[in-house]
Write a structure and sequence with these properties.
Blueprint (H helix, E strand, L loop, with lengths): L4 E5 L4 E5 L6 E6 L10 H19 L3 E6 L14 H8 L4 H18 L15 H13 L3 E4 L2 E4 L1 H7 L10 H11 L12 E5 L8 E2 L4 E4 L1 H13 L3 E7 L3 H16 L4 E7 L2 E3 L2 E2 L10 H6 L11 H9 L7 E3 L1 H23 L12 H19 L4 H19 L9 H19 L12 H15 L3 H13 L2 E6 L2 E6 L2
Parallel strand pairs: 3-4, 3-10, 10-11, 12-14
Antiparallel strand pairs: 1-2, 5-6, 6-7, 7-9, 8-9, 12-13, 15-16
Helix pairs in contact: 2-3, 4-7, 7-8, 10-11, 11-13, 11-14, 12-13, 12-14, 13-14, 15-16
The protein binds adenosine monophosphate and zinc ion (ZN).
The site of zinc ion has 4 residues, from loops.
Length: about 500
């Protein structure tokens, strides 16, 4: 079971069992952000989804090389202007200042949501030589041509022996019909041809001198170059948001295949969109939420702030390939779920198996718990289904709580099952899903001091004080529990 991943192969639309090209190594490439503006929650959803995929593959023992790039040049707006160039001009800054500012912001956001750093984070401007070399190779292979200082990929030529559009299931004739009306660019032989190198307009500030012109690389080129440079001409998994499938990934395949005569990625995984009232969250639509707005609650659609782990839990409660609609109610529900899970984690971490030789083993309970543990693997093996995994973890949680409250005897499930339950619950939450206790929640030293005071007041039978402390803590979302084993606390669910 372990190591046999069914991964939904969107290239063939078949469910296949995942086998890396060079086990135990796995190459994973994910298209990173274009660093010209704040990261919104839609972007976070995509990077979080691949974070869990990366985590799970590592958890299974694969040696994963995770490459996630930074796009710092070449991603154009519909108007044809470079996003970073435009922002730099508007703010009278050096383009690299814009790049640095938003790269820092991106890293901060990733850390806030416990999203792991990739193993390599290459930038487009750091790989210009390699991009120029790929353009030369494509020209030599007869698949690219120069026109008026720009260089374009020749879709018609490529399509003589290949199928442009196979990843997204688009037909070239349909694409041509749609594009002709919109696009009247004279430089190209064919409106579907895309730029590998673009001659810069005089006002364009990000530019490099080459034999073709003073210009800049096309956006699709960087990922074809950097993925194959670090992961090989053929590698295991390529990911990104669904909106990158066409044309970005389609063009990537065309360039890599056109250069090396090899399909670059064996599995293409696409995350679905985070929506707001059914509409894709996007900066240009004006419906995007910044992470900091969600955390502070400073938004008209929110009744309160939500912690990063609540937001992480909310996102992982749906499968990455399904759309996820954002709402205040869904976040409130996720908060309850997260608190339940966090309470369970605190309880199980403190629990140690106590041997009781007289106890009889309850085979039914034991079997159930073993099955719940297996199910966590099955769910993740089936195309990284975090939604189902969380459901199975809740089943385990019920058993943990039953032991905690004395309804189920720990001894009755035996040491082996107890230890498996404990390690599965903790590792799937922390290592695989990246769910952890939050420091910002009042669980630290201060709480211990208050609880000590509570205990002293109880011992002194000072019930006014006991009530006062109890309600003050409740107002802060903490419930005091008088257990047989002493005073305990939990987040209010
Ligand atoms: P960008 O910086 O715009 O290229 O986006 C970075 C990543 O976020 C890409 O993989 C996009 O597909 C993804 N993305 C953008 N908007 C959303 C959204 N609303 N939901 C999920 N992913 C998104
Ligand atoms: Zn890309």
């Amino acid at each position: 079971m372990i190591g046999k991943l069914k991964v939904n192969n969107t290239l063939t639309k078949k469910k296949e069992v995942f086998e890396p090209l060079n086990p135990p190594h796995v190459g994973l490439y994910v298209c990173g952000p274009t660093v010209y503006s704040d990261v919104h929650l839609g972007n976070v959803r995509t990077f979080m989804s691949f974070d869990v995929i990366y985590r799970y593959l590592k958890f299974l023992g694969y040696k994963v090389r995770y490459v996630r790039n930074i796009t710092d040049v070449g991603h154009l707006l519909d108007s044809g202007e470079d996003r970073i160039s435009k922002k730099a001009t508007l703010e009278s800054l050096e383009p690299m200042e814009i790049v640095q500012k938003y790269t820092n912001d991106f890293h901060d956001v990733m850390a806030t949501f416990n999203i792991l750093c990739p193993d390599i984070e290459p930038t487009a401007t750091g790989h210009l030589m390699e991009q120029l070399a790929m353009i030369d190779q494509l020209v030599d292979n007869g698949l690219a041509y120069e026109s008026n200082g720009s260089v374009y990929f020749d879709i018609e030529k490529y399509n003589k022996e290949n199928t442009y559009g196979k990843l997204s299931g688009r037909k070239i004739e349909d694409l041509l019909n749609q594009t002709r009306e919109l696009d009247g660019q004279d430089d190209k032989k064919n409106p579907l041809d895309f730029a590998l190198w673009k001659k810069a307009a005089p006002e364009h500030i990000m530019r490099w001198k080459t034999k073709w012109s003073d210009g800049f690389p096309g956006w699709h080129l960087e990922c074809a170059v950097m993925s194959t440079k670090y992961l090989g001409k053929e590698f295991d998994i390529h990911g990104g948001g669904m909106d990158l499938q066409f044309p970005h990934h389609e063009c990537e395949i065309a360039q890599s295949y056109g250069t090396y005569k090899k399909e670059p990625a064996r599995y293409w995984l696409h995350t679905n969109m985070l929506t707001v009232n059914g509409q894709k969250m996007s900066k240009s639509l004006g419906n995007s939420f910044l992470p900091k707005q969600l955390i502070s609650g400073d938004h008209e659609l929110l009744s309160q702030g939500f912690s990063p782990m609540t937001i992480r839990f909310f996102m992982l409660q749906s499968h990455y390939a399904s759309t996820l609609d954002f709402s205040n109610e869904a976040l409130i529900a996720a908060q309850k779920g997260y608190f339940k899970m966090a309470n369970g984690m605190r309880i199980i971490k403190k629990m140690e198996f106590a041997e009781n030789t007289e106890a009889t083993i309850d085979e039914k309970q034991k079997e159930q718990i073993e099955k719940f543990c297996d199910n966590c693997y099955y769910a993740m093996n089936d195309d990284f289904n975090t939604a189902l995994t969380i459901g199975h973890l809740f089943n385990i949680l019920k058993k943990i709580n039953a032991i905690h409250t004395g309804q189920l005897s720990m001894a009755a499930i035996g040491k082996e099952t107890f230890e498996r339950m404990k390690s599965t619950f903790i590792s799937f939450n922390e290592e695989v899903l990246g769910i952890k206790a939050e420091d910002s929640l009042p669980g630290g030293q201060l709480l211990d001091i208050i609880l000590k005071e509570y205990q002293q007041a109880k011992e002194a039978r000072n019930y006014d004080k006991v009530d006062e402390l109890r309600s003050a803590l409740k107002a802060g979302g903490i419930v005091v529990k008088d257990m047989k084993t002493g005073i305990d606390w939990a987040y209010e669910e």
